[in-house]
Amino acid sequence: MTPSPVSDLGGFLKEQRQQAQLSLRQLAERSGISNPYLSQIERGLKKPSGEILQALAKGLRISAEQLYVHAGLLDADPSGGERSALDVRTAIRADPLLTDRQRGVLLDLYASFVDDEPMRSS
C-alpha cells in the first residue's frame, strides 16, 4: 500500500525536525504553529495548508517546495527541467513574506543559475 501524501509529509517533517535537532515544541515556537497541531501533522492526522507548510519550512530552514512536494501540492520533477524552474519562480512570486524588491533580486539570482540569459532588472 502506497503511503498517502499526508502521512508521507508527516514522516518527512519529523525526519527534518530530528535532523535539525529540534524538539516538537521548539519547531512549533520557531514556526508559530501550535504544538498539538504540529504533532497531528507529523502523525499524518492533519493536512496543513500552504501557509502552514511555508511557516514550517521557514522554521526548519528548508525549501517550502520540498514540503509542497511531500504534501502532494506539487509534482516532483526528477529531471529538474523546465517545470522545476517554473515552480521555483512561481513560489518566489507567491511568497507573501518577500517585498517586490526581494522577489526581483531572487528571480534574477535564480535566473543567473539556471538560464542561458538571466533576466536582469534595470
Blueprint (SSEs and pairs):
Blueprint: H1 5-19, H2 24-31, H3 35-42, H4 50-60, H5 64-70, H6 82-94, H7 100-114
Helix pairs in contact: 2-4, 4-5, 6-7
What are the key terms here?
single chain; 122 residues; mainly alpha; 7 helices; disordered N terminus; disordered C terminus
Describe this structure in words.
It contains 7 helices and no strands. The chain is an all-alpha fold and 122 residues long. Residues 1-5 and 116-122 have low confidence and may be disordered.
CATH topology of the largest domain: 434 Repressor (Amino-terminal Domain)
The named CATH superfamily of the largest domain: lambda repressor-like DNA-binding domains
State the CATH architecture of the largest domain: Orthogonal Bundle
Count of the domains: 2
Could you report the average pLDDT, rounded to the nearest whole number? 79
Helix content: 55-70%
Shape category: elongated
Q: Give the H and E element order.
A: HHHHHHH
* N/C terminus separation: 53 Å
Low-confidence stretches: 1-5, 116-122
